[in-house]
């Protein structure tokens, strides 16, 4: 694809690095920005810079937040149940189903030796600390991870680590297609998978 200027080409190359945006879509965005006034461009730039510089992560559940205080710890939520997910988008997807009323814990990824990601790179130690130190005894851990080799490996590892605790360990029902990611699963399917969650069997992991 030929571009009118090097500036446009550079902008297109950067924007097309965003997930789900190809070169044609990036070009449309760049040309749209050029048509707008300077205030519009500055507003977008400022929002992105603030997003990157001021975003924090909860020190308890590791969810993206405006502060380090836990935003999922509210009186209406069941603090005895913790749903373990890969990342914040999974929390957004699960909340949108209105079928889960417990707490969350973000791992920050999945175990993937091929990508150089091991258990020590994830927020697993803080999950164990939460269970040990929770004011309300934790009675259930829900493993809401992708139906992939990495997701299954991570679930198996966590289940083994939690074996010494008196906990019910469940996993979302396999309404999620194999290899599917939670954030892209429709709300009805995901909601049913949470409601019909099943006991996690270490012998099958």
Could you give a quick summary of the protein structure above?
This protein is α/β, with parallel strands linked by helices and 205 residues long.
Description:
The protein is 40% helix and 13% strand. With 205 residues, it is an alpha/beta fold. The chain folds into two domains: 6-54, RecR Domain 1 (Helicase, Ruva Protein, domain 3, Orthogonal Bundle); 69-199, Dna Topoisomerase Vi A Subunit, Chain: A, domain 2 (3-Layer(aba) Sandwich), CATH 3.40.1360.10. Strands 4-3-5-6-7 form a five-stranded mixed beta sheet. Helix 1 (6-15) crosses helix 2 (23-35) and helix 4 crosses helix 7.
Strand content: 5-15%
- Can you summarize the main beta sheet? 5 strands, mixed
Distance between the termini: 48 Å
Task: List the total number of helices.
Answer: 7
Q: What is the correct CATH architecture of the largest domain?
A: 3-Layer(aba) Sandwich
Mean pLDDT over all positions: 86
**What is the N-to-C order of secondary-structure elements (H for helix, E for strand)?**
HHHEEEHEHEHEHE
Text of the CATH class of the largest domain: Alpha Beta
Helix vs. strand class:
alpha/beta
Helical fraction equals 40-55%
Q: Helices, strands, pairings?
A:
Blueprint: H1 6-15, H2 23-35, H3 38-54, E1 56-57, E2 64-65, E3 78-85, H4 88-97, E4 102-106, H5 124-133, E5 140-143, H6 149-161, E6 168-171, H7 187-195, E7 198-199
Parallel strand pairs: 3-4, 3-5, 5-6
Antiparallel strand pairs: 1-2, 6-7
Provide tags for this entry.
alpha/beta, 2 domains, 205 residues, Dna Topoisomerase Vi A Subunit, Chain: A, domain 2, elongated
